[in-house]
């Protein structure tokens, strides 16, 4: 595994979740470019630096012993990556203060280093939350690989921070420099909402929620086929997003004990608010977590899942396969995993490798709903 070498540190970094012989790095040229720009400034050790969307901690780990570093992002896997990489490089965990994306920041900050996220709504919300958090003379720098750096990112920086200058591209990476200027307190357009007819729900969606503007077509295909009228069973909505699957299921099974888990803090925040709106004070468990990794073995009767097919910019079925493995471990014998997936992904064959029985519940030309029995 190549090491991450910068003027600040030489680090051994891993991605999360770990996988053997991972061909992907936990850093890229945009991280290198950003740190190379920062180093000649010879910033003092009491400089307060905010790092946003530092995927696996490459930036925060590099700066941890040089400045006062706060890292903030919406990925629990990102936090686990930061913590793993601090330990891996013998750096104290307390060297970096982590703030979940759904929590307020505590400025003022002298430098803000931003890895531009895939979801520009998240970037917009983060820039809105920077209002009043910048110290005099602060510098805001966004970085990304050119192929993942849309013009709209610069437009958002200009709208909420100030004039923007772009660097030349180096190793296919680019930096955007925003000069803060006085602006009125912005009004956030988030969370957004949309309504469902069946079941009749009004759903709140914070900035980084998948399909924030409307129900995704996979979930729409899944909803009419959810199991109903089940008794006091233990159920998890794995990768819950805004919680719609769990809520629709819970409405049809009033005695079920439901856990909603996602690796996005904003998804869990949305799910909690939507559950309260639809089901009042009915108890449920909400977790920002690495799927069901911490779930006790043989502790669930049913798992519902609309698995993701990407992690940040990386597309693949690694996360889905891992979720299937986690579900199998957490289910009791005879327990069931219900999923929806694109037909072409071949989940039926994958599930057969883990479960003793796999049945097709329903299908349309694009999606298939499967039930896997442990």
From TrEMBL:
It comes from the Bacteria. Residues 201-371 form the Methyltransferase small domain. It catalyses: guanosine(1835) in 23S rRNA + S-adenosyl-L-methionine = N(2)-methylguanosine(1835) in 23S rRNA + S-adenosyl-L-homocysteine + H(+). GO terms for molecular function: 23S rRNA (guanine(1835)-N(2))-methyltransferase activity; nucleic acid binding. Residues 1-181 form the RlmG N-terminal domain. Its EC number is 2.1.1.174. It is found in: Cytoplasm. It holds the Pfam family RLMG_N. Keywords: Cytoplasm, Methyltransferase, rRNA processing, S-adenosyl-L-methionine, Transferase. One of its GO terms (cellular component) is cytoplasm. Its main location: cytoplasm. Specifically methylates the guanine in position 1835 (m2G1835) of 23S rRNA. PANTHER family: RIBOSOMAL RNA LARGE SUBUNIT METHYLTRANSFERASE G (PTHR47816:SF5), RIBOSOMAL RNA SMALL SUBUNIT METHYLTRANSFERASE C (PTHR47816). Belongs to the methyltransferase superfamily. RlmG family. This is Ribosomal RNA large subunit methyltransferase G. It comes from Pseudomonas marincola. The gene is rlmG.
């Amino acid at each position: 595994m190549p090491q991450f070498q910068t003027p600040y540190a030489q680090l051994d970094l891993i991605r999360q979740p770990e996988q053997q012989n991972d061909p992907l790095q936990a850093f890229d040229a945009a991280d290198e470019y950003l740190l190379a720009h920062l180093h000649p400034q010879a910033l003092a050790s009491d400089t307060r630096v905010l790092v946003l969307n530092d995927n696996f901690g490459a930036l925060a780990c590099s700066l941890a012993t040089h400045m006062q570093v706060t890292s903030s992002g919406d990925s629990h896997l990102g936090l686990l990556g930061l913590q793993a990489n601090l330990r891996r490089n013998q750096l104290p965990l307390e060297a970096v203060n982590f703030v979940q994306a759904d929590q307020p920041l505590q400025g003022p900050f002298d430098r803000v280093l931003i890895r531009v996220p895939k979801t520009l709504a998240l970037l917009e919300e983060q820039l809105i939350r920077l209002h009043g958090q910048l110290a005099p003379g602060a510098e805001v720098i966004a970085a990304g690989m050119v192929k993942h750096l849309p013009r709209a990112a610069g437009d958002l920086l200009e709208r909420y921070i100030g004039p923007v200058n772009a660097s030349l591209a180096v190793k296919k990476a680019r930096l955007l420099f925003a000069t803060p200027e006085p602006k009125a307190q912005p009004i956030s357009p988030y969370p957004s909402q949309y309504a469902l007819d069946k079941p009749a729900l009004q759903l709140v969606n914070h900035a980084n929620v998948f399909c924030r503007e409307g129900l995704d077509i996979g979930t729409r295909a899944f909803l009419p086929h959810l199991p109903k009228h089940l008794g006091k069973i233990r159920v998890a909505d794995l990768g819950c997003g805004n919680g719609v699957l769990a809520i629709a299921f819970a409405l049809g099974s009033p005695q079920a004990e439901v856990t909603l888990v996602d690796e996005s803090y904003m998804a869990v925040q949305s799910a909690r608010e939507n559950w309260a709106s639809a089901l009042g004070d009915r108890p449920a468990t909400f977790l920002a977590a690495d799927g069901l990794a911490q779930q006790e073995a043989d502790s669930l009767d049913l798992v519902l899942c609309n698995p993701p097919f990407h992690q940040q910019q990386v597309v693949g079925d690694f996360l889905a396969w891992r979720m299937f493995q986690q579900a199998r471990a957490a289910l009791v014998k005879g327990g069931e995993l219900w999923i929806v997936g694109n037909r072409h992904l071949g989940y039926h064959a994958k599930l057969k490798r883990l479960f003793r029985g796999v049945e097709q519940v329903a299908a349309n030309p694009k999606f298939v709903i499967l039930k896997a029995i442990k």
